[in-house]
Write a structure and sequence with these properties.
Blueprint (H helix, E strand, L loop, with lengths): L5 E3 L6 E3 L3 E2 L12 H14 L3 E3 L8 H10 L8 E6 L1 E5 L16 E5 L3 H15 L6 E5 L3 H4 L3 H21 L5 E6 L2 H10 L4 E5 L13 H8 L2 E5 L6 H4 L6 E2 L2 E2 L2 H17 L3 H8 L8 E2 L6 H11 L5 H9 L12
Parallel strand pairs: 3-4, 4-5, 5-8, 8-9, 9-10, 10-11, 11-14
Antiparallel strand pairs: 1-2, 6-7, 12-13
EC number: 1.1.1.107
GO molecular function, one term: pyridoxal 4-dehydrogenase activity
Keywords: Oxidoreductase
Length: 338
């Protein structure tokens, strides 16, 4: 599988490379990345042929957007696809007064949620100024899920459908952006969003992986039926599908429970039997689904990027996927790469 081969999105006509660049890490999540290393990372991705970049105002309180814009600004704008998100507005504030968690050394902006029509219009304008780019290709309503809002999620979702969604659809119809949708942590929320609004795409973080295929229960079939493109983030389930079942392995940003560790051990055994790297299986599996044109693993260094590119190219025989199904380690109805 060639990570820089392109797939076309049926509704918007956009073309993205199979592997995109998830720009949350260059927003300094958990620990800082220097300006030099951030620039080198994007340059290495470009030089390798990666042509899809995903960022958001949330990432480093604007830092990720600023770094993406600075690094991409002088490349031909028609040669790459860029997505960012709406739903948070940034306001200047003294660093000492800002809670940056989980970001480190972000930009001096405080964040507040705003899923209103006017808030989204303001957000798109702010993002364009931070990045100093001609246009944004994809705009996603960010984090209207239970993971972010808890018990208040139903009210947030309704506000977003009545405000943010209408704004994005207007921007798409006017040609300001080419595709619109939502970026969330739960497939159920994404499922309801495409039932409610005429979205082109979705970004789903961590809910369709080698460990989780419940998204096949209605959601992904509906995406395929309506030709909605799904960008897959969090394909390692926040770590364990990259590291394997090692001590301290992370699953959903927390220590993996024993049941998950045991399941990953079983997957690793099949990987050993077929000489397939676990990371390669994790990266390629999700792209077997026809609704998923691109996978955007986050990377913190050029070495990690190069490892992902190499791992993406690993040859995986059809028998490997068949064995995972035979042992009940992935669902029988899971589409697998050809």
């Amino acid at each position: 599988m060639d990570p820089v081969a392109k797939r076309k999105w049926p509704r918007s006509g956009l073309e993205t490379t199979l592997m995109g660049f998830g720009a949350a890490p260059i927003g300094n999540i958990f620990r800082p990345i220097s300006e030099e290393d951030s620039a080198a990372l994007i340059k290495a991705a470009w030089d390798a042929g990666v042509r899809y970049f995903d960022t958001a105002p949330m990432y480093g309180h604007g830092l990720s957007e600023a770094r993406c814009g600075q690094a991409l600004r002088w490349y031909p704008r028609d040669q790459f696809v860029l997505s960012t998100k709406v739903g948070r507005l940034l306001k200047p504030r003294k660093r000492a007064e800002i809670n940056f968690t989980p970001w480190v050394d972000g930009l001096p902006f405080d964040m507040r949620f705003d899923y209103s029509y006017d808030g989204v219009m303001r957000s798109i304008e702010d993002s364009l100024q931070r990045m100093a780019l001609e246009h944004i290709d994809i705009a996603l309503i960010h984090d209207i899920d239970l993971f972010t809002h808890g018990d208040g999620q139903p009210q947030v979702f309704e506000a977003a459908m009545n405000g943010a969604a209408k704004a994005l659809l207007k921007l798409r119809d006017e040609g300001v952006v080419k595709a619109v949708g939502v970026g969330v942590n739960e497939w159920q929320v994404a499922h309801e969003a495409i039932r409610r609004s005429d979205f082109d795409c979705l970004l789903l973080a961590g809910r369709y992986t080698l460990l989780e295929q419940d998204a096949l229960d209605g959601f992904l079939p509906l995406c395929e039926e309506r030709q909605v493109s799904v960008v897959l983030g969090g394909g390692y389930n926040s770590g364990i599908l990259a590291t394997g079942a090692v001590p301290g392995a992370k699953y959903n940003y927390a220590p993996a429970p024993e049941a998950i560790l045991e399941r990953v051990r079983k997957i690793e055994q099949v990987c050993r039997d077929f000489s397939v790297p676990l990371k390669a299986a994790s990266l390629q599996f999700v792209l077997g689904h026809p609704a998923i044109p691109t996978n955007i693993p986050g990377v913190r260094s050029v070495a990690q990027l190069e490892d992902n590119l190499q791992t993406f190219r690993a040859d995986i025989p059809a028998e490997f996927w068949a064995e995972l199904k035979r042992r009940g380690l992935i669902r029988e109805d899971s589409p697998t790469p050809r």
